[in-house]
Amino acid sequence: MYTVTVRGHMMIAHSFTGEVFGPAQRLHGATFIVDVEFRRPELDANDIVVDIGRATQVLNTILEGLTFRNLDEEPAFKGRNTMTEFLARAIFDRIRQAIGRGDLGDGANAIEGIRVTLHESHIASASFDGTI
Amino acid sequence: MYTVTVRGHMMIAHSFTGEVFGPAQRLHGATFIVDVEFRRPELDANDIVVDIGRATQVLNTILEGLTFRNLDEEPAFKGRNTMTEFLARAIFDRIRQAIGRGDLGDGANAIEGIRVTLHESHIASASFDGTI
Amino acid sequence: MYTVTVRGHMMIAHSFTGEVFGPAQRLHGATFIVDVEFRRPELDANDIVVDIGRATQVLNTILEGLTFRNLDEEPAFKGRNTMTEFLARAIFDRIRQAIGRGDLGDGANAIEGIRVTLHESHIASASFDGTI
Amino acid sequence: MYTVTVRGHMMIAHSFTGEVFGPAQRLHGATFIVDVEFRRPELDANDIVVDIGRATQVLNTILEGLTFRNLDEEPAFKGRNTMTEFLARAIFDRIRQAIGRGDLGDGANAIEGIRVTLHESHIASASFDGTI
Amino acid sequence: MYTVTVRGHMMIAHSFTGEVFGPAQRLHGATFIVDVEFRRPELDANDIVVDIGRATQVLNTILEGLTFRNLDEEPAFKGRNTMTEFLARAIFDRIRQAIGRGDLGDGANAIEGIRVTLHESHIASASFDGTI
Amino acid sequence: MYTVTVRGHMMIAHSFTGEVFGPAQRLHGATFIVDVEFRRPELDANDIVVDIGRATQVLNTILEGLTFRNLDEEPAFKGRNTMTEFLARAIFDRIRQAIGRGDLGDGANAIEGIRVTLHESHIASASFDGTI
Of C129, D24, E57, E131, which is least packed with CB atoms within 10 Å of its CB? Predict the structure, then answer.
């Protein structure tokens, strides 16, 4: 299996609902360093999994729709805790849609799996990994 | 599949038995940066895999039982080489026990897999990955 | 010159005032990885600059007073933009006060300089460096 | 499953053929930080997956055959784009051959899988993962 | 003293002249991760050293003039070895010129010093540090 | 001012004397990632501060004299606590001696300053910086 991984980041505010979260129930924020891994069993005719430049652009466009925002006010996340693992899934879904729209090129149809990892600090991260 | 990963570290002394180890047969030591990844297929009612704060506490408690020690003198490791990969398994087993005791909360029962990675330097690491 | 550096982090919300900041004028947030470097020309009788454990505790206590908060509502920062470089100075001042109170031990009086660096992402950081 | 991962690097020149590559069609170059992960289900009699020192030597020997070269002139890569993911596979194949020759010792026959990851910058990487 | 540091990267081919360089006399290449630190004694009216977004743009524009090229063919470097430390100085000079042109804004006139660091691998880097 | 920095590592056992050290009074160990920065005001005739390959060799030779050892039994450190900052100085002294012996080449006489940094974990480091 071949993979390509690209990196971006976003800086957001949010708060969590639930006693388990302690002081994180207060409005606070995070920088998320976002890694997206694309997987496919064979390379395409150009010897690539996906063009790294194009994959980076697609990721950055998705992150621009999230960064510099208070996620508590985003209609898409209403009633949910925007935990690191939850956001990994939300970005996974948006990348899958981008592939479906052809934003990553025709060859991207051969991508079988994606893993989205968000690093919230130097000591904690979360991910969502799925097939497409 | 969703994951959450938390990080801690320990600083230990040990020596290895076996000619393959060359100068590492002498008493020496290591800092191990320890990453523990928890996996489950669905998020719980709080939108989490496991609470990052609680997971960090459980990991740190386990590492406090190992750090600042000479592992050659630990009864639990008698007759074994405390290699990086061996220690990854030892920490995996202790985390599995902690989950069994409920230290990570009731929701942690839905955790299906764990991966423990120990970084022994900037150029070498080892891990153990298993289901629970 | 000898140094010791310890690391902690905080997760905060804030917004900026000024057209130069573009979308960062909206409420957003950041994880700041915080490195504090302590400098002195000679080691003390224990062969240390400062005890790393104690320095980490002092840093963590200061960061607990900032993390999981909306800095726009902190009286101490009223009317200021809580930029990364500004926060580096704010933490510098609090460490200097902690040394003055003796929180780092008597030997810490020999510390001549401190540098506080905040990493706001994998591609940007800021610092304040001063004598004490 | 147990793993051991070792790291090396190489510094090469190359160019790509295909309009998708834009300015990367020009002769340019890269530092590749190379991580090789070895996997096996059980440890050997020495409590290891593979000797880290020996694995590092095998990797460095392979990288010495690639580094400080213009890959456009390497017969082994003629007519191919030496993309990061393509090179990950090329190194995978050479490690598999080294194991077959016994360069990693007899115990290395129990290795079931290998993952080779090449980091081409702080924001992009690629890998090949396969069984042996 | 306050600092702000931003990061970019470039991927180039080159060769070196001089027996001291051994196999690096052959055409090869490198990824350089480039950190630029800006220093000034006081913050401006916006509480910043320099706008991080604008500084990143200026750095990226300079790096676009170098990346995806064979530096052996660049007239600006004719007759020189484009070592990591030499390139750190070349980028320093271009940033100083950009400040002189006002590309970083009027407030950037208060910047007193710059440090440019190029990481050529996980185990080697070089820098040039100067006043402006 | 120009710099070049090279990296190596060592893995040692030791214990500390003094109540301030708490559990670190027990025999334990550490991996130290060691960065050595060489500084000089002008480049030499080859456009370098010091040859990176040669500097790496000199550093590795020094580290081979320390790694895989119990520092409590090293005559050179008798009666001292081999703290991270203390070891940074010890390595600084050995590099200065290597330069004096000509191990880094004749050009290395122009080196004016050296900084040795030891990373003992992902959250703590220490250094010694001096002129030569």
Answer: E131
Most B CBs within 10 Å, among A21, A39, A83, A122, to test the B interface: A83
So what's the pLDDT on residue D107? 81
Q: Do A30 and C28 touch (CB under 8 A)?
A: no
Q: Across all residues in chain E, what is the average pLDDT?
A: 97
Q: How confident is the model at residue E93 (pLDDT cuts 50, 70, 90)?
A: very high
Q: What is the mean pLDDT of chain C?
A: 97
CB F36 within 8 A of CB F116: yes
φ, ψ for residue E125, nearest 5 deg: -150, 170
* C23/A68 CB distance under 8 A: yes
Q: Do D126 and A8 touch (CB under 8 A)?
A: no
**Could you identify the residue written with the tokens 């930080």?**
D33
- Taking the CA of residue E124 and the nearest CA in chain B, the distance in Å comes to 13
Q: Which of C52, C49, C62 is nearest to C101 (CA)?
A: C62
Q: Which two tokens stand for residue C108?
A: 């810490």
Mean pLDDT of B117-121: 98
Which residue of C22, C83, C123 is in closest CB contact with E48?
C83
> How far does the CA of residue B47 sit from the closest CA of chain F (Å)?
29
Find chain A residues with C-beta within 8 A of F122's C-beta.
122-123
What is the rounded CA–CA span in Å between residue E4 and residue E48? 9
pLDDT of residue D98: 97
Using only the alpha carbons of chain B, give its radius of gyration: 16
Q: What does the pLDDT average to over F6-18?
A: 98
Q: Which of D52, D60, D63 to mutate to test the interface with B (most CBs of B within 10 A)?
A: D52
Q: What is the pLDDT of residue C106?
A: 84
Q: How confident is the model over F29-64, as pLDDT tens digits?
A: 999 999 999 999 999 999 999 999 999 999 999 999
Closest partner CB to F83 (pick from C48, C56, C105): C48
Q: How many residues does chain F have?
A: 132
Name E71's Cβ contacts closer than 8 Å, sequence gap at least 6.
E12, E13, E14, E77, E82, E87
Assess whether pLDDT exceeds 90 at residue D13. yes
Determine the Cα–Cα distance for residues A7 and D122; give it in Å rounded to an integer.
8
Cβ-defined contact of F122 to B23 (cutoff 8 Å): no
Do D110 and D40 meet the contact criterion of CB atoms below 8 Å apart? yes
CA distances from F110 to E116, F40, F42, F45, F132 (A): 21, 6, 8, 12, 9
Which pLDDT score is estimated for E81?
97
Query: Strand D28-40 relative to strand D113-121: parallel, antiparallel, unpaired?
Result: antiparallel
| Residue C107 scores a pLDDT above 90 | no
On the question of pLDDT at C91 being above 90, the answer is yes
Give yes or no for B80 touching D (CB within 8 A): yes
Instruction: Answer for the pair F46, F37: CB distance below 8 angstroms, yes or no.
Output: no
Q: DSSP string spanning chain F?
A: -EEEEEEEEEEEEE---SGGGGGGGSSEEEEEEEEEEEEESS--TTS-SS-HHHHHHHHHHHHHTTSSEEGGG-GGGTTS---HHHHHHHHHHHHHHHHHTTTT-GGGGG--EEEEEEEEETTEEEEEEEE-
- pLDDT at position A17 is 97
The partner residue sitting opposite E81, judged by closest CB among F7, F47, F105, is F47
| Residues of A with Cβ-Cβ distance to D22 under 8 angstroms | 53
pLDDT band at F123 (very low <50, low <70, confident <90, very high): very high
Q: What DSSP state is assigned to residue C103?
A: T
The per-residue pLDDT for F78 is 96
